[in-house]
Amino acid sequence: MSQAALMMSTGVVTPRARTRFGRSRPWVHWKMEKELYVYRLLGRTEGLPTPSILWSDNSKELLPQNYVLMTTLQGQLLSHLAPSLSARELRDIYFQMGTLLAKVHGVTLEAFGYITIGVIASHPTNEAYMRSQFQKKLVEFDAYGGDPALRRTVEEYVETHNDLLTQARIPVLCHDDYHEGNVLVAEEEGKWRVTGIIDVENAVSADPLLDIAKTDYYAIRANEAKREGFLAGYGRLSMNWRERIQLYKLYHALELWDWFAPVGNKATVIRLTDDIRRFAAA
Hints:
Elements: H1 3-8, E1 11-13, E2 17-21, H2 29-43, E3 53-57, E4 67-71, E5 76-77, H3 78-81, H4 87-104, E6 112-115, E7 119-123, H5 126-143, H6 148-160, E8 172-174, E9 183-188, E10 191-197, E11 204-206, H7 208-220, H8 224-234, H9 241-260, H10 266-281
Antiparallel strand pairs: 1-2, 2-4, 3-4, 5-9, 6-7, 6-11, 8-11, 9-10
């Protein structure tokens, strides 16, 4: 590979290692630092199929970019395979996904909040963190032309269900993007095995049910085989988990609305508006 191609690449893969390059824009620098921090946290937990960090360098002495060298994970994205898999195969895979996410949630942190190389803009309680997040997303909802009446409905729902935000006492590491596009699987002896968990850029320190809610909203939806496998694999859930997941799904729908509205994706915005309305009416 030429030097020019190397500099433009976001990653170079060898059979055993992958080199990831940070883009030259200064504001992207923290994303590499976050990946290092989160993958190292996950690396302390036995049995998690995440890449190991072999080397990182932000000095720009060897190359004109920041870079990370990490081990390669085998397998292919579950999102590419899921449509062709049977209900039993999906249940088995989601059982593994649930088991692995429970391991991720075994990593506890010092406060609730967003993660870079630690918890930033930290909050002492989940209630404080999530109310702050709802407020932030509703301000964006307004700015991007969201329905004022729907905003008030969301505010009323959050206020009415505020007690659900007080029940998570210990902040844990949440992947916050745990869906089929970030899970690798490989077939071994006729059975599918989860071989990788990737893309930790969204990771937060939060209520573990916030993570489960996103997986449910993004990936499980109405698929009972996926849901049954995932919940069985994850294990025991805390009190009022269904109601708390419902509240968090409202948050995720609002967050996704704020993502798509500025780019003018009208069909998706309409669907997400319907989701927000449905979750806030439950």
